[in-house]
Amino acid sequence: MLHLTTGRVGCLLSKQAVVALTGSGARMSSHGHHEVSDSVDMSQPMYWDRLDTPLPDRPWKDVLDSTDKSLKQKEKGPWTALSKEEKIALYRLKFNLTYPEMKRPSHEWKTVIGGMFIVFGITGLVVFWQCHYVYPPQPPTFDEEWQAKQLQRMLDMRTNPIEGLSSQWDYKNKQWK
Amino acid sequence: MRNWGGSVVHFNWRHTHTHTVYGYVQSCYTPLVQRCYAHGGKLESDEEFDARWVTYFNKADIDAWELRKGMNTLIGYDLVPEPKILEAALRACRRLNDLASAIRILEAVKDKSGPHKKIYPYLIQELRPTLEELGISTPEELGMD
């Protein structure tokens, strides 16, 4: 018996084609025998709703009650005799989701973006805490006064005089160019 | 173009004009499929491709598996099938007493058209005589959109 858990079924299928695979084909109440387990019996014809594969191996509803059976009998005659509701009923017997239903947008993106921001927020809190409690004291070289003296020293020794720092300093007027 | 065994399909659109019953030109896009065979055989023309598929669906004793296989394969191609192929497929559904699949086929070709909104109405227009003869309602008529 070939079994496949529904989780692995999802990875096998391409992203654009599948919107909802009824991996639960084996455990639908309309199916003949009831499976208690979560996995799909891959040795039986499967049902699927796929945009790129319109006709699955088996109909959606296998087990037909008497009204369904009489409708199926009527289907053998001219279809002009069927009412709209009967045609819709026949479709729903054979298929679970229509194409528009398969293509319906989900609200998953909101969960994704929301989750993203929550993670950013938690990360921000962690970073803030660590700035306060984990980082060692700042070296003296970051102080304003030290930085000013450092800059003056660099200008005095003419660092990068052609294109870099000292070239931007106007030595005559003691200001930036 | 060398490939690893399958046939390579070159796909390009050809812009064609058709006249509707109402007298104005309705432009539509017809896919031009050129199939190259890996062994270097002759290119199959559009007409040959269409004829092959029409013959497939026109088989008098086509069975349900063949219909499903044919449709699933056809929808797998990078093209929207010509009305005559769809007509043959719908007639095959009729022989198999399968209205639901007929409606599903119409939904599938509408989805195949993708962003080209004019293709599906054109197909329905071309298929209208067949739809009326067989009594197939479109998904729109059944409110399934």
UniProtKB/TrEMBL annotation, chain A:
Q: Where does the record locate the signal sequence feature?
A: none
Q: In which pathway does it act?
A: Energy metabolism; oxidative phosphorylation
Q: State the Gene Ontology BP annotations.
A: mitochondrial electron transport, cytochrome c to oxygen
Q: Where are the transmembrane segments?
A: 112-135
| InterPro entries hit by this protein | Cyt_c_oxidase_su4, Cyt_c_oxidase_su4_fam, Cyt_c_oxidase_su4_sf
User: Is Transmembrane there in the keyword field?
Assistant: yes
Q: How does it sit in the membrane?
A: Single-pass membrane protein
Any one GO CC term of the record: respiratory chain complex IV
Where does the UniProt entry say this protein principally localizes?
mitochondrion
SUPFAM superfamilies assigned to the protein according to its UniProt record, in alphabetical order: Mitochondrial cytochrome c oxidase subunit IV
Location in the cell:
Mitochondrion inner membrane
Q: What UniProt keywords are attached to this protein's entry?
A: Membrane, Mitochondrion, Mitochondrion inner membrane, Transmembrane, Transmembrane helix
Q: Which family does it belong to?
A: Belongs to the cytochrome c oxidase IV family.
Q: How does it assemble?
A: Component of the cytochrome c oxidase (complex IV, CIV), a multisubunit enzyme composed of 14 subunits. The complex is composed of a catalytic core of 3 subunits MT-CO1, MT-CO2 and MT-CO3, encoded in the mitochondrial DNA, and 11 supernumerary subunits COX4I, COX5A, COX5B, COX6A, COX6B, COX6C, COX7A, COX7B, COX7C, COX8 and NDUFA4, which are encoded in the nuclear genome.
Biological role stated in the UniProt entry: Component of the cytochrome c oxidase, the last enzyme in the mitochondrial electron transport chain which drives oxidative phosphorylation.
PANTHER family recorded: CYTOCHROME C OXIDASE SUBUNIT 4 (PTHR10707:SF15), CYTOCHROME C OXIDASE SUBUNIT IV (PTHR10707)
> This protein is called what?
Cytochrome c oxidase subunit 4
Species name: Oncorhynchus mykiss
